[in-house]
Amino acid sequence: MKTIAIVGIGAVGTELVRLLIKRKFPFGSIVILARSERTEIIDGIPYQVKAAIPESFDDVDIAFFAGTEGAKGASQILGWEAVKRGCVVIDNGDDFRMDARIPLIIPEINTAALREHQGFIANPNCSTIIALMPLAPLHRVAKIKRIIASTYQAVSGTGAQAVIELEDQVRAWAGGHAMHSKMYPHQIAFNVIPCVGSFKDESGESTEEIKMRRETHKILGDSSIKIANTCVRVPVFNGHSIAINAEFESPITANEAREILTRSPGVHVVDDPTKSLYPMPINASGQFDVLVGRIRKDQSVENGLALWCSGDNIWKGAAQNAIQIAEQLV
To answer: What are phi and psi of 234, to 5 degrees?
Structure first.
């Protein structure tokens, strides 16, 4: 039985605790670490939170660093220190994803890369995971040349306080009161914000858009794929959705794509628009699988498909994927 450490107990850390139990991961004990000591109640059970220091990782088998989008610092300070003490680190933050020493893993797609790990494994960005779950199986068959993706990202990706802010703004609007914004530069209720992450250079791309391109290249092992994406925050509590247009080197029909995806682990095809059946974040939330539908020919290119997918960004996009990596290690 494994001793597990969870570093950070926000939205992702809390779901790590729940999913370790729900998925019956073989752990003997869970140690929760954060900046300060306190008690956290998760599903009615009190958990003692201890201050994270290097010695915290003595006798720990696997440590999950549970940073949400943009969260930095903990794995930089303590990640390799934990490895030195014999612990395997699975990092949900973005500090080390592009480090050549560290495999970037989606278990259904590139588990073989785990063989190269040096005690430190990175969890990809939530949008990258949700997009690649349907794209990778198609890439194996017809080889992708180009991807255009537009994301519709839920506020839970920013963290628990962003979920509260959306709820507070909706309540304020319903009551005729002023709405206040702290987590985002603009009101998120009844609005969309075409910025996820930040703008740090003159490229015009946000950090989230850069992540999706670079991480896709690393995970698929193919930097020749041309990728353009626009990442947008939407007033949805949980569940990211992505509209994808993919151009392939070889012909592939919508029916062939459906057959491939129906057989693909971790993907659930929901695709009958005439009966109003298609992926939606409200249905993807709380599901292990990524939902994919609206699969059709992209009329703008010779070998192209358009599709729409939705996935739970806190589960498959973060906590669940990290636990699946640990399951592979066990």
So the answer is: -125, 160
Mean pLDDT of all residues belonging to the chain = 95
Domains and CATH numbers, the chain: 2-123+318-329 (3.40.50.720), 128-313 (3.30.360.10)
**Mean pLDDT over residues 59-86, rounded?**
84
**Secondary-structure percent of the chain, ordered helix, strand, coil, rounded to 5:** 35, 25, 40
Q: Per the residue annotation, which of 126, 195, 231, 309 is the catalytic one?
A: 126
Helix or strand holding residue 227 (H, E): strand 226-233
CA–CA separation, 92 and 108 (whole Å): 17
d(CA 12, CA 65): 9
Task: List the catalytic residue out of 139, 240, 268, 309.
Answer: 240
Residue 140 to residues 56, 137, 190, 218, 255, Cα–Cα distance (Å): 42, 5, 39, 15, 16
Residue 126 appears among annotated catalytic residues: yes
pTM score, whole prediction: 0.95
